[in-house]
Write a structure and sequence with these properties.
This protein is mostly helical. The strands form two sheets. A four-stranded parallel β-sheet has the order 4-3-5-6. Strands 1-2 form a two-stranded antiparallel ribbon. α6 packs parallel to α8, α18 packs antiparallel against α19 and α19 packs antiparallel against α20. It is globular and about 80 Å long.
């Protein structure tokens, strides 16, 4: 462990000791919400007319056009910060913009009046206003609100999948990624003669199943415990991975923790979900930039991960150091091994599909040199994972392909 990390943990001893104690005592008393939302519920928000309305109109209907037009720079920056207009940025960069007096008033007004795009925007501008009651009674979650007002829609059910995501994501892309994974799973089931299950899936997504107006009222360590319990109980984590070349979840402490909790539990499954545009990019990188995509997905370092709240990051690091086998290196190794296995299986699917990528876009690539090279590389990954019979199949298929394509005397053969 680096001396810098040791110092950070040492300086936080008092705070994190309290957090650890609270987390331990709340494990049995603060059970996570046993609810998930259907893909149609997610799509209803992504396709809502509110996604085209100004953020300030959605979150602050008390402000008139005149009110905003007469605001000075400081007032506009404060309102922009309240709406988190730059939440697509990482935390440090985002919040520094709200202190930047050089940004013109017209620029701030344009941002304030722009429509919501990120998951953070959706929470602030749609979820929280819809679930906040003005009579002082408990607000409740979005899922509870939908269940009470429209039970006939069957939008809420027992959770079957835990969504691991970054709040910086474009929300529409997040929903597309979730649906794409569900469709791909059903296609794979159909090939095995099994019925589709997309309409039986209910997603545990904190923005929809937790009361977003009462997050500050939760006991210390609640979300740390609730997420871990949810992952283990649900047994299937869908990690939204985008953008592929700069994957945000691999640098976020909460996402890294969720990946580890999933991989560490022998009964839980980790699957990766990509929006259609990123699926095409994955296929291209597998065929032409294989080493680059391997490096991206196997360079997880929990010690360098970030969190919106520094105390959350330190608590995750402390738990990793104190409770996880192998400490930081063990967690990094387990996550990277899990991602390598997913990448290997994904590459195998592409190979078996003749380079078409399971309908992910692009034309056929039948025994091109790129595809044959991929077969060889997949064989090496399978061998490293101890999957020797599968590795032999890949090696033999690559060799036979090279012989047909280039001839038995070619150097590549």
């Amino acid at each position: 462990m680096s001396s810098l990390l040791q110092a950070a943990l040492a300086n936080a001893t008092t705070t994190t000791t309290t957090t650890t104690t609270t987390t331990t005592t709340t494990t049995t008393s603060s059970a996570f919400p046993q609810e998930g939302v259907h893909i149609e519920c997610l799509k209803s928000v992504a396709n809502s007319p509110k996604m085209n309305q100004p953020m300030v109109q959605l979150a602050r209907p008390d402000l008139t056009v005149s009110n905003i037009d007469h605001m000075n720079s400081k007032e506009l920056r404060s309102l922009a910060k309240e709406l988190r207009v730059n939440s697509h940025m990482n935390g440090k960069d985002e919040f520094s913009t709200y202190d930047d007096a050089s940004i013109s008033n017209d620029e701030w007004k344009a941002l304030i009046r722009s429509p919501p795009t990120t998951t953070t925007h959706v929470n602030i501008c749609i979820i929280k206003p819809m679930t906040k009651k003005g009579d002082g009674s408990p607000n409740g979650s979005y899922a509870r609100r939908v269940q009470q007002e429209s039970p006939q829609l069957h939008y809420v059910g027992k959770p079957t999948d835990f969504i691991s995501h970054a709040w910086r994501y474009n929300f529409v892309d997040l929903v597309r990624a979730v649906e794409s994974e569900a469709d791909e799973r059903d296609r794979a089931r159909a090939q095995r003669g099994l019925k589709p299950i997309k309409n039986e899936r209910y997603y545990w997504n904190d923005i929809f199943v937790e009361d977003q107006n009462a997050t500050m009222d939760k006991p210390e360590g609640y979300f740390f415990t609730a997420f871990r319990e949810a992952i283990v109980s649900i047994g299937r984590t869908v990690l939204i991975l985008m953008p592929l070349k700069d994957s945000i979840p691999l640098t976020r402490a909460w996402c890294v923790w969720e990946m580890f909790c999933t991989i560490h539990d022998t009964h839980a499954e980790l699957v990766i979900a990509l929006p259609p545009s990123e699926k095409k990019e994955l296929k291209r990188m597998l065929l032409h930039e294989f080493k680059d995509i391997v490096n991206i997905l196997t360079n997880v370092k929990v010690e360098n991960s970030e969190a919106f709240e520094e105390k959350d990051r330190l608590e995750i690091l402390r738990t990793v150091v104190d409770q996880c086998e192998g400490g930081i290196n063990g967690v990094n190794g387990a996550i990277c091994a899990g991602l390598r296995e997913w990448l290997c299986d994904t590459a195998m699917t592409l190979v078996m599909d003749g380079g078409r990528g399971g309908g992910g876009g692009g034309g056929e690539v039948v025994e091109s040199e790129g595809l044959l090279t991929l077969m060889n590389q997949v064989g090496a990954m399978l061998q490293d994972q101890g999957r020797l019979e599968e590795a032999e199949v890949m090696y033999r298929r690559a060799l036979e392909g090279y012989e047909r394509l280039l001839g038995s005397d070619h150097p590549s053969t």
